Amino acid sequence: MRRWATIRVAALATALLLPLLVAAAALAHEVRPAYLELREQEPGTFAVLWKVPMRGDMRLALKPEFSGKTRPSLPAVRILSGAAIETWYLEAPALRGQTLTIAGLAATMTDVLAHIEYADGSTWTQRLTPNAPSAAIPARDTILNVAGLYLLLGIEHILFGIDHLLFVFALLMLTQGIGSLVKTITAFTLTHSITLALATLGLVNVPLAPVEAVIALSIVFVAAEIVHRDQGREGMAARAPWLVAFGFGLLHGFGFAGALSETGLPAGHVPLALLFFNVGVEIGQLLFVAAVLALAAAVLRIPLPLPTWGYRVPAYAIGSVAMFWTVQRLAMF
């Protein structure tokens, strides 16, 4: 009975998630954040780095603008890892108190993380969105603002990281009982937290493209293990899903680190930003697990007959989407 209840939940959740998975694969590049960094080299002169996501050979039409008097130099442009990177110098004797606006942001689905570092060591970090493309630059930033910003970024990253959620969902289908669930989620949290920290701090460097492809393959592997279990060929993954979560969690941590590197870290608050980004990822992950369990509780109350082939649908749907991602990511090497 418990097995069929799990199948019913998985079938319903897969039917609800599958359109989102396809849409997420199509929009993955557009929702990547842009990053604006200004570092004061001498009083009133800033070195500017402006990183904008690209889709193929086209970049998003975004431009930072300031409300007060500024004088930019001619930019140097280079293309690197699916993004256009511009660098220039900006003369702005009175940058504090001005309003920063990202022109064109309201027409996109992406965000911009802006970071200013002054010569006196003070900083300002702000997230601009399509609904709020402007922000006033204050005299000083606060630790609370940095912590809250990266906490929110971590939550949003995991909730929009459909591949990570699909891996967690497949692990939930493998687990049997609360004890197994707790061990599996704890193992995944522990290992991806370790590699996220190591990669973000520069202690370990792993190319992102192969990591993303192997992350997709990890979902294919877990989906195959679900099929094997349902066919009566229970493997180690089904008997101890926490081992799978532990091993593949290392790879998913590198994926989180890649996303965080695209967002950027405030130079004066790297440990703080890393800590709260990771906490945000864990909060988002727990919210997802809670939502799946709540859906399971609701489905158990609804008569939902399935045909004999219905139990195959969730695992094959998950594996098919993950295999598509694998081929897509290999083609991008």
Description:
The protein is an alpha+beta fold and 333 residues long. The chain folds into two domains: 2-29 and 156-331, no CATH class; 34-141, Sandwich (Immunoglobulin-like), CATH 2.60.40. The chain is 54% helix and 19% strand. The protein has helices spanning 2-27, 143-160, 162-174, 178-200, 208-230, 236-239, 241-263, 270-299, 313-331, and strands spanning 34-42, 45-55, 58-59, 63-66, 71-72, 76-80, 83-91, 99-103, 112-117, 123-128, 134-136. Strands 1, 2, 3, 5, 6, 7, 9 and 10 form an eight-stranded mixed sheet that branches. Strands 4-8-11 form a three-stranded antiparallel sheet, with no helix packed on it. Helix 3 runs parallel beside helix 5 (208-230) and helix 3 (162-174) crosses helix 8. The longest helix is centred in the last third of the chain and has 30 residues, at 270-299. Residues 1-8 and 24-30 have low confidence and may be disordered.
Structural class by sheet pairing and helices: alpha+beta
Order of helices and strands: HEEEEEEEEEEEHHHHHHHH
Proportion of helical residues? 40-55%
What is the arithmetic mean of pLDDT?
83
Rg over C-alpha atoms, rounded to the nearest angstrom? 22 Å
Helix segment tally: 9
